[in-house]
Amino acid sequence: MTHLLHLDSSARSRSFSRTLTGLFATAWRAANPASTYTHRDLVASPVPPIGEAWTEICDHLLTHRITDIDRYAEAVTTPARRAAWATVAPLLDELVAADVVLIGAPMYNYSVPAALKAWLDQVTFPRMDLSGRSFVVASARGGSYQPGAPRAPFDHQERYLRDFFAGHYAVTDVTFVTTELTNALVDPVLADLRPDQEASHAAALAQVDELVARFTSAP
Q1: Are strands 36-41 and 3-8 parallel, antiparallel or unpaired?
Q2: Phi, psi of 152, deg, nearest 5
Q3: Which InterPro entries match (predicted)?
């Protein structure tokens, strides 16, 4: 039995990234009726920023060379740390339990939403090893950041997340599903790019179907 953790971080209730994650989650659950599923909306229920007590937990883990996630609670030795851990523990439990982590992450100001960054900060401690898990990131971007596009060098979203998952979690199975040029639907200056936007979104929808088939096919 597998477990899917589904995170959304778009400020829009009807967004392209939420559409993509919703389609993936619905298809995944239909194909895996015996499996389990957790959805966390990081906008509707924001995760608070880390505080000093969180850093003390992190320092304790480093000092005592604790590498086993199941032993992280050993660092919770003061009232302030217990309060911090009350926030961390359910988030970390959801992440560790997941086989597939589905993240809706629109590009905001060339990077990720603050809501997602707060979650990443909370669930990341020294020497975490989540290898063997798969991450799927559903992204939406106002412009085009494909290789060769003028703004490609400004893409600090995909590179950041890939480096983060590999560097902190030892996870390299990361797939991005991206709808680009969404601003063409609202900005008259970009109206001539609407066909390109539609093509990008259609390709993303097809990729969702392919990914669901990949994760639900029999070994």
Answers
A1: parallel
A2: -55, -40
A3: Flavodoxin_fold, Flavoprotein-like_sf, FMN-dep_NADH:Q_OxRdtase_AzoR1, NADH:quinone_OxRdtase_FMN_depd
Tokens 């798969």, residue? 134
The token pair at 69 is 């996630």
17 is in an annotated binding site: yes
- Is 125 annotated in some ligand binding site? no
What is the block-wise mean pLDDT of the chain (219 residues), using blocks of 10 residues? 93 94 95 92 97 96 92 94 97 96 96 97 93 96 88 92 95 96 91 93 95 76
- 13 annotated as belonging to a binding site for a ligand: no
pTM for the complete prediction?
0.93
Write the CB contacts of 129 (distance below 8 Å, at least 6 apart in sequence).
Answer: 67, 69, 169, 170
End-to-end CA distance of the chain: 13
- Domain locations in the chain as residue ranges: 3-49+96-213
- Residue 9 assigned to a binding site: no
Of 201, 164, 202, 207, which is closest to residue 181 (Cα–Cα)?
201
